[in-house]
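This section describes the prediction task in plain terms. A model, or a person checking by hand, is given the sequence of a single protein chain and must write out its three-dimensional structure as a string of tokens. No templates, partner chains or ligands are provided. The sample shown here is typical of the held-out split.
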Amino acid sequence: MLKPYFQTKKIEAGCDEAGRGCLAGPVVAAAVILPKDYYHEELNDSKQLSEKQRDDIKKDIIKDAIAWGVGVASPGEIDDINILNASYLAMHRAIEQLKLRPKLLLIDGNRFKPFNEIPHECIIKGDGKYFSIAAASVLAKTYRDELMRQLALEFPEYGWETNVGYPTPAHRDGLRDHGSTPHHRKSFQLLPPVQLELF
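The expected answer:
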């Protein structure tokens, strides 16, 4: 069962990101401040939820949250500063969007780049432990998935409407047949190396 808070007396914002392992599209992060007594029967790590559950829960989060924000780091920024630093950048941008300054950040994962001298706690698999981090994971995932579905209308060859930029066979086939787009991460290995047959 998810916990409603890490510390009772501090305003906490849960933070998480989506899209680190994709070949295309931005990395997206969210930050969410929930009421201290918050409870949601279905809210969990976004990876444990169906697409419909995520879409429904997203509406509840936006309605119930004290504050929330979404931040994006582009494929170009990912290529320039690497995916880890781009994830930090997206989180920082999400935190900047909060209308209330948190006193503590709960970060999903084991590393974070400090932001504006706000104390933080890194929590491995935190999106399955705290409501605020789970809420951030849902907002980041739904925001990014919708963005990739919109990009799929412009670039239908890669199956982004279903794979949302992850390296599926359909996505790899699109890369082989059509090459890359401005939305692909050029610093990533977009296609596996060709295996030469020896005779």
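For orientation: The first strand starts at residue 12 and ends at 18.
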